[in-house]
Amino acid sequence: MTTPPDVEQRLRQFAQDYRRIAAEVRRVIVGHEDVLEGVLLCLLTDGHALLEGVPGIGKTLLVRTLAEALDLEFRRIQFTPDLMPADIVGTNVITEAAEGRREWEFRPGPIFGNLILADEINRATPKTQSALLEAMQERSVTVAGTTRRLTEPFLVLATQNPLEMEGTYPLPEAQLDRFLLKLLMRMPGREEISEIVARTTGRQAPRAGRAADAAAVLSMRGLVREVPAASHVRGYAADLVLATHPERPESPPLVRKFVRYGASPRAAQAMVLGGKALALAAGRYNVAFEDLRRMARPALRHRLILNFEAEAEKIDPDAIVGGVLEHVPEPGT
């Protein structure tokens, strides 16, 4: 099957825009290539990302730089135990109108932006977390009976610190499932730290230039949805998800031993959508098995509920996913 000329042109434009956006972000961000790729995939598939890493490795800078490269509005919300839902979505206040009359006026909260950094989301109470997650799911907020739509494109990147457990409220599994991907920001190496110091201790720190805008992002999102995924590719995504369930006969021994509950169908959606964006970025108009394999860890790692034995033996979810990838054959092999 041949690709129509207009689709070929859009395909080339997509790949060029993707490379240009990534290049502008790399002018500021050192390393974290897999995280940058994951954030861009979430942006282009209308999903949200959960970033996990110790403080000081560039999570806030990454999101702010991406907003600069796309000329989008960046908002940062610092989650604390005393943060209330109204601090996120906004509230109605009484104002003085003409002729001394008083009336209600809506003051929007920081959720009304394009790129929202929810910093240390696990430090806020479940009630406040739910207010953010509702906005993520519905793309709107309701205050005093009035529903207000959020501005598109809309992307939430939530961070959590894996080391600090006191005074935190871990996200429930059902809420974790709403994040398209979970991305791990690891400590940079020696050469990367040296480059970070060189870029940030001079007279002027580098900044990202404008590589695209909101209209371009929405157009790229539309093309992602048009990419076909063959039935055997969709079937492979389904096989990977089903293999994470310990009660299934096709699950590997590692899953049956260490997993309490497997991933939901949203994991298959995340793998296929991410695979479509990966294919377009590589100049292809079809999803390959390798695309799904690349998406498997970020799409599955936060959707697996491990048992006590896994915690006692310090089994990493990525190791479970790796076992699944080795165990489940590609269709036709």
Task: Spell out the blueprint of helices and strands.
Elements: H1 5-26, H2 33-44, E1 49-52, H3 59-70, E2 74-78, H4 86-89, E3 90-96, E4 102-108, E5 115-119, H5 126-138, E6 140-143, E7 146-149, E8 155-160, H6 173-176, E9 181-184, H7 190-200, H8 214-226, H9 231-242, H10 253-258, E10 259-261, H11 265-281, H12 289-300, E11 305-306, H13 308-312, H14 317-327
Parallel strand pairs: 1-8, 1-9, 2-5, 5-8
Antiparallel strand pairs: 3-4, 6-7, 10-11
Helix pairs in contact: 9-11, 9-12, 11-12, 12-14
SSE arrangement, N to C: HHEHEHEEEHEEEHEHHHHEHHEHH
What are the segments in which pLDDT stays under 50 over at least 5 consecutive residues?
none
CATH 2nd-level architecture of the largest domain: 3-Layer(aba) Sandwich
The CATH topology of the largest domain corresponds to Rossmann fold
Distance between the termini: 23 Å
The H-level CATH homologous superfamily of the largest domain, spelled out, is: P-loop containing nucleotide triphosphate hydrolases
What spatial order of strands do you see in the largest sheet? Answer: 2-5-8-1-9
Largest sheet report: 5 strands, parallel
State the domain count. 2
Would you state the CATH class of the largest domain?
Alpha Beta
For the residues shown, what is the average pLDDT? Answer: 88
Helix content: 40-55%
Given the helix and strand composition, which structural class is it?
alpha/beta
Instruction: Supply the number of helical segments.
Output: 14
